[in-house]
Design goal:
The chain is about 55% helix and about 5% strand. It has 20 helices and 7 strands. Strand 6 and strand 7 form a beta hairpin. Helix 7 runs parallel beside helix 14, helix 9 runs antiparallel to helix 10 and helix 12 runs antiparallel to helix 13. It starts with 9 loop residues before the first helix and ends with a helix.
Length: about 450
């Protein structure tokens, strides 16, 4: 990643500013937190054409003045003790509103998720996807197909990449056991130990904060070898971790409300910024984000994978950290990027569900148009398409359609003979007919 053009601080800009130029900033509309409607960093703004008769440096001063009056400070501080802050810019509020609507409510959600018979399959798919892509972000090279098969089959990992993915999966599953509890430092250490088990060069580093005797890892530009970021000294890590856990659990002054989604994003940043572990900091940070979202009852995030989106724009992910740390600890850059990622992840889930619903309706339409099944059998097949693993009996089918026992039996037996329902017994007499998980494929295979 290329080094950024480091912006001047507000104090430096004011010191170099000529007072007679201030009216020019007002006239040009330069005193705004969103130049050209975007939350631009100096690294970007310096290349844009400034409004009216002002320089880019003067434009940046107007931007900084506008933002300084709207910043909200956080308990997170850098190594020098300077606080991080953010502002509730219009894009932030708009995306928070969208996510609140989509991720916390259950109205108008697709039946595939609300249905208790299928929701666990969707959660399983999401957990696997997040475990794989979060590990791939940090170097795991195993393909998605191989990794997914490994987790589903329970096969033991054969190398470090596969171990990283299994660890991530176990950790994300375990997070669900913590969502009703306050986060403690030991919870974070345990989480890191799970995430890094059998993957570190020094196994003793799993679940342990770095100490002053350890070499702290800096972020370095691969091309120029310039140090882009150095984490806080190891001596500060225990107190910083304790403060992070208090913040994560909502232990804030009463007049310092922080939106739960903002809190989850800050927690993600905080752990990664402090970089308290030898390795696995990014995976731990993203796992804590999920814990915070689920703890705040944003239940839809059981079904989405943010790492899939992050993986598609990894350079922007890294740059959002650098923008924040280079511009007077302004976390708004990171918050906006993460909100964009979350919004895209929700849209991706919605598109996936819409596609599934469309496929089901298409199969149903083809059934009705070209099959020789009766209306009762079509009703069962429609229900089975939406409810894999649903169970039917001759008695239940008889009652539902008010037909004779022999008619109900013939309906179900034929569907089983056609391979569209699986048949088993409960006791000596009762037949149970089960909707197979792959019923859509079976129906499509039957098409002429």
């Amino acid at each position: 990643m290329k080094p950024l053009a480091k912006p001047k601080t507000l104090a430096e800009l004011v010191a170099a500013f000529r007072n007679e130029r201030f009216p020019k900033l007002i006239e040009a509309g330069a005193v705004t937190p969103l130049p050209n409607g975007k939350y631009h960093h100096w690294d970007k703004l310096r290349h844009l054409k400034p409004p009216a008769d002002i320089s880019n440096a003067e434009w940046w001063l107007g931007v900084k003045l506008a933002r300084s009056n709207m910043r909200r400070t956080l308990p997170l501080k850098d190594a020098a003790g300077l606080p991080f802050s953010y502002m509730m810019a219009d894009p932030v509020q708009e995306m928070l509103h969208h996510i609140d609507q989509k991720a916390a409510g259950r109205i108008e959600l697709a039946e595939e998720v609300t249905n208790s018979e299928t929701r666990d399959r969707y959660i399983m798919n999401s957990l696997i996807e997040e475990a794989i892509t979060s590990s791939q972000l940090e170097g795991a090279s195993t393909s998605r197909v191989v990794a997914s098969d490994m987790i589903r089959s329970g096969r033991k990992p054969t190398d470090r990449s596969e171990q990283m993915i299994v660890n991530n999966y176990v950790a994300i599953v375990e997070i669900r056991n913590l969502i009703d509890k306050s986060l403690k430092p030991q919870d974070v250490l345990n989480l890191h130990e799970t995430i890094t088990e059998d993957t570190l060069d020094n196994p003793a580093s799993a679940g342990r904060l770095q100490t002053p005797d350890d070499v702290r890892v800096s972020v370095v530009d691969n091309a120029s070898h310039q140090v882009l970021y150095t984490p806080p000294p190891a001596a500060q890590l225990p107190s910083r971790l304790a403060q992070m856990c208090r913040f994560a659990s909502g232990d804030l002054p009463k007049n310092k409300f922080t939106h739960p989604i903002i809190r989850a994003i800050v927690l993600h940043f905080w752990l990664a910024h402090d970089h308290p572990f030898e390795d696995g900091n990014g995976r731990t940070a993203r796992a804590l984000f999920y814990w915070c979202m689920l703890s705040s009852r944003y239940w839809l995030f059981e079904y989405v994978s943010i790492s899939t989106i992050l993986k598609g724009a990894y350079a922007k992910y890294g740059k959002s950290y650098l923008y924040t740390e280079s511009d007077e600890n302004d976390l708004t850059y990171f918050i906006i990027y993460q909100l964009e990622v979350m919004t895209r992840a929700i849209k991706s889930l919605e598109a996936h569900l819409a596609k599934k619903v469309s496929q089901i309706k298409e199969v149903e339409n083809q059934l009705r148009a070209g099959s020789n099944f009766n209306h009762r059998q079509l009703a069962i097949l429609s229900h089975a398409l939406r409810n894999p693993k649903a169970e039917y009996t001759i008695r239940s089918h008889q009652r539902s359609h008010r037909v004779a026992y022999a008619t109900a039996s013939a309906d179900l037996m034929r569907l089983a003979d056609e391979g569209l329902l699986d048949r088993s017994r409960s006791g000596k007499k009762t037949h149970i007919f089960i909707a197979p998980a792959d019923i859509q494929r079976r129906l499509q295979d039957q098409e002429p």
